[in-house]
Structures are given as structure tokens and as C-alpha cells.
Amino acid sequence: MRQLTRSESVVRTAPSRGGRPARAPRATPQVRRTKPVRTAPVADPAAASAAPAARPGRAPRAPFMLLVIGLLCGGLVSLLLLNTVLAQDSYKVNELRSANDQLRQKKEELKNANMRLEMPGALSDSSAKQGQGPDWDEANVITDRSAGSRAASDGQTPAGQERVPGTGR
User: What crossing angle do the helices spanning 62-117 and 120-129 adopt, rounded to 10°?
Assistant: First the structure.
């Protein structure tokens, strides 16, 4: 397999990274070749064996993975807290609705009891218990004939029974 030169390959730079240019994918997979390791003379052979050579061009993945896992865990915890708060509010709403229903029923019961007490039979019973009764000796009709007031029937005919001129009725 022949390796392409820089002038033959398509080169483009990634806008988010300022470092290496990004290359277009090739039609055939590239085989990775290992380069021979060049050793430089070291003054202290013990120091050379203790420190391995760092791999250039590759960022460590551990901090990024920890960041992603931390964000996922934080999102999960906040979602659980939000769900708990909403559940508490729904319990309060249910309690308030049931209290409103009970108050509405009590209002209807009191309204019905008041209507029963205002009926003529209930009024006569309560007045009899208080020692009151009808005055059958004298009919008291309240009329106010002052200042030109008159009854509705004075000089008028009932509705629907008007006189028709020329008929005598």
C-alpha cells in the first residue's frame, strides 16, 4: 500500500480546534505503522526507566468522563427533587379540593335548612312555639291612600279585557 503525500490528500482544518488539521476519510483503511523509537543518551539510567515517555497528541479522557458522569448525576438528582416537589404540591391540591367539596356540601345543607325554615308551615310552627298566633278577630288590610296613590284596579280594566269602542262592551 502506498502512502499519500500531503499534496495528494485532502486536508481541511477543523474550526473548533486550532491544532491539527482534520483529514478526509480514505476509501481503504489505513494500517498503523510503528515508528522506531529513538533513544537519547541519558546521564542517569535509573531516571530513564522510572519515567515512561508521554504520548503526544492525545488528551486524557478521565477528566472529560468524570465531567459527563457528574453532569448526568446532577441532572438525575435535580429531576428527582423536582418530582418530589411536584408530588408534595399535588397532595396539597387534593387536600384543598376535598376541603372545598366539604364546605360546598355544608353550604348546600345550610341553604336547604334555611329554605325549610322559611316555608309557611315551619313559620306557623315556630310562631306558635313563641306564643304568637293569627288574629282572626279583625282583618288588618294595609292601604296607603296618601299623596295621590291609588290601587292598581282603580278605573282600569284587567289586562286582555280592554273595552272595544263601538261594541258596548
Answer: 70
Distance CA 126, CA 120 (A): 10
Instruction: Tell me the pLDDT tens digit for each residue of 84-101.
Output: 998 998 999 999 999 999
**pLDDT score recorded for residue 136:** 75
Residue written as cell 345550610? 110
Which sign does the torsion angle of CA 142, 145, 147, 150 carry? positive
Distances 143 to 39, 148, 152 between C-alpha atoms, Å: 132, 12, 12
Q: What does the block give as the cell for 145?
A: 291612600
Chain segment 55-74, per-residue pLDDT in tens: 667 778 889 999 999 999 99
Biggest alpha carbon–alpha carbon distance for the chain: 149
Please name the residues in contact with 117: beta carbons below 8 A apart, sequence gap of 6 or more.
123, 126
Measured CA to CA, the distance from residue 77 to residue 135 in angstroms comes to: 82
3-class SS at 45? helix
Question: Which ranges of 16-165 would DSSP assign to H, the alpha helix?
Answer: 45-50, 62-117, 120-129
Instruction: Evaluate if pTM is beyond 0.70.
Output: no
pLDDT in tens, 13-39: 555 555 555 566 566 656 666 766 666
